[in-house]
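hey can u check if this looks right to u? its 346 residues, i copy pasted from the old doc so theres a chance i mangled smth
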Amino acid sequence: MEGVKIVENLRDQLMALPKVELHLHLDGSVNPETILELAQKEGIDLPTENLDELRRYLEVPEDCKSLGEYLQKFEFPLAVMQTKEGLKRIAYELCERVAKENVRYFEVRFAPQLHTRKGLTLNEVVEAVLDGLNEGKREFNVKAGLILCAMRHQPVEINLEIADLAARFKEKGVVAVDLAGDEANFPVEDHAEVFERAKASGLHITIHAGEAAGAQSVAKAIELGAERIGHGVRSFEDPEVLAKLKEKKILLEVCPKSNRHTKAVRNISEHPVKEYFDKGIRVSINTDNRTVSNTSLTDEYQLVMEELGFTVDEIKKMILYAAETVFLPESERDQLVQEIKAELDL
């Protein structure tokens, strides 16, 4: 019984920490109840209307076999994210979800081009998500930024549209452009023009790299102007890449549980994030997809403490790293950093 008490106290302590989340996908973080309700309202067929059974179609099992199996879980969330009402509600509810574990600021990302099946324009898609975030920010006293994802498998012309779309909403809540998708088969350099255009518009850059491809993918992302790297798990394969990450203070947006599910690592105990942290490379802990991986930031913190030996003080340092690397105007970022430092007593 004494052991259980210690764990409970640790979890309470982790839950209470002021948090910052930088790598979070909207379509992977939809409440199952919401999917069921929206599908019923919109006449979308689901494999079951039993909520517990539906979760099996939305969450990966702990023994998830591959990235392919992981990606199958996005089918039904995407199906209900094709209307203004659905997009707004899902963004609003995400604010509520993160606020419950004391997240003070989060950046959520999604690919607007995946939400036009029923006739919404790209502008309408982004407006709906921003409306939901803005309402949620007011209601739950949380701050948020929106990141638009270009997709690796799509033509450069489409991804240039996403860069232009992000620029149009730069003063309304969109903070950055990302590149996501099939990293192994579609190299980042194919989309160099996308990032040139985004940077010219004053947008920040984060790029998925080093998850399904090696350290060279991370090196190319840095070369193209990435200020943060999504995952970066395989950066250790090249000492020069590690040195560059440290020198440039480029933060790795690490998602431990998701990395295990997608087989970026075989087991959490083999995850290199502690090695990176100990080398002085900036890392932050994130959820990636809260519903698909059935996780929270508190879960992720507890996981890396139990499996990798992180201490509470080291968790606090990673939270500060995240706060220092948010894609906010300098004055707003500095204010967030000071608030986090004061609360964490750093």
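The chain has one domain: 2-344.
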